[in-house]
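Teaching assistant here, posting this on the class forum so everyone can see the example we discussed in section. The complex has two components, and the goal was to see what a joint structure prediction looks like when all of them are supplied at once.
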Amino acid sequence: MTVVDNPPTGSAAPAGMAGALASSKGAGADRAFRGLAVAAGVTVLVILALITFSTTSSAWPAFTKYGSSYFFSTDWRPNQKKFGIVGFAWGTAVISVIGVLLAVPTSIGIALFATEVAPRRLRRTITTVMDLLASVPSVVFGLVGFYVLRAPLQSLFRSIGDSVAGIPIARNVLGQGSSGISLLTAGIVLAIMITPIITSVSREVFNTVPRNDKEGALALGATRSEMITGVIIPHSLGGLTGAVMLGLGRAMGETIAVSLLIGASSSPQITANILGPSDAMPSAIARNLSEASGDFRAALIGLGVTLFVITMIINVGSRRMVSVIDRRIKGAA
Amino acid sequence: MTITAPSAPTQTDATSVADRLKVPSDVRVSTIKGARFARNRAATTAMTLAFVLAIVPLVFVIGNVLAKGGPVVTPSFLTRDIPTTAGASELKGDCAKINKYDPTAACDESAVKPAAPKPGIGPAVVGTLITTGLSALLAIPLGLLAAVYLNEYGKRNRLASFIRFMSDVMTGVPSIVMGIFVYTLWVLEFGQGRSALAASLALACLMLPIVVRSSEEMLRLVPNALREGSAALGARTWKTTLRVVLPTALPGLVSGAMLAVARAAGETAPVLFTIGAANTVAAATTVTGQSTTLSFQIYNLITNGGKISPQMAWGAALTLIAMVLILTTIARTVSARFTMR
């Protein structure tokens, strides 16, 4: 790598080697600057540790007092000291899955379009469109959904509910769309919000596919779609998995737009009805934490800690999965 | 057609691709080709369609915000105090309506009801500038220094790899968790109360990992030849970093930092429990006192209802989007302008 990187001892090397070559002038300044930089790096770790510790200790009373009923019950009635978070977890899971299911094919399509199909001039336009979409604040999506889409969606959901009333399974999934805000509404908005991130990561992944592999496939007579399914996708599986999980993590933590569009049930239940109102973990916190105190506050912060842990697992898991798949592909090649 | 070009070299006959498509000489081959080309065409259409699908919500959102917020946003809207009656669901002249639904309700037409107030979001504009600026002051120097450690000193050693990994993980931490963190530690535990500073701390926590990772990427792009040249002249790492590496990477660093600032400006969740409330520009011009931001104000206006809330929310949304877009555009221009060279 670099010249200063040559000695195998790594971190201590630059100062040591420079010291051997030059006079000792500036060695103190270098040590001070290095110390400052190390301190800044460690601060990142300290903040993350503080986040973990501070939120967990605030939520601890809820975990210890309500124990298993906190994690395995759907009974959430704060005024009766009943705190079961399963309903909120269900809401978060359903909208995240809807969001990812809608966003992943679209994002991969856009990324392939940008890397393989679109002429050069259009590629910059695609980047701009994705940047614009990514820069729209969450609350603005919530605003548009709340004031503009709610009314038309309400009549749409009602007519859907009426038309599937006689069909056994569809009746349970698409029935009773009483208002325009629902699990599905929140899921669709999440899909829009996570599309830019999944697209940009997928694009980077597709750009790492070796040109020789692509041209080799084309030279063998493959059409572009065959080249994509035969070369690009297998080569990119690891990176794509990472992109999808990144999107999933974002979707789970998204707060404001979801809070405005999910319907805010006070005690969400496990339901298959995606046209009905529910609530998600972050939006329940957003709506109630300011005024909450005592056990209720601890229970809400506990929701945040649970969410934090789940997104951490997803993030760490996605990175590990990416490295495993990458290694397998490299080993096969 | 561009699609057929790649497969041309495999054909044994010398006729042009276009000719072969029009007049297939061999029926069997042409059917196989037909199916494959059809599939290829379908895939291309699907990819194009995916892009169109992404444009639709963007145009819809921006169009709505422009159409509904455009008439509201005026210089006085941006500087005027938030009317204390913004949340009022009854305004002057509403008595007839109220009594229609609830005849027993006491309604004094002349005295209590406020006149329709003039919309304004001055405090939110001031508060957004202060909290975002403050969080940038906290997060950018720290994040940049951490990036310098990762790329110039730590490189691949265990601590640096761990910090790199953890900042990646921290990028994925939901923004509301940052809000909860500052709320529990700073507002409750330390008893500092809600303030612009508390909100800035939460936003800084959000920005920090973004700044670290983007800055490190930018530092990595600086050619090693520059570092080696500087080292060969006898400069130590700190001098090389300050005089050679950072100036070279400056455009990239600036654009990365501005994107992080733009992200923080639009965030609502970390601000929710930490900022409090402020209705006048004078009250919002503060660091240690309670304040408000555009995104927070929009959320409040939607959830609290009120007669003029929707129009104020649309105006605030347009202002917020404009601010975020200006920051993003400057960032993109800076990085595009300087990477050309």
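For the discussion questions: The domain at 73-332 of chain A is CATH 1.10.3720.10 (MetI-like fold). The beta strands of chain A are 76-77, 82-83. Think about how each of these relates to the inputs above.
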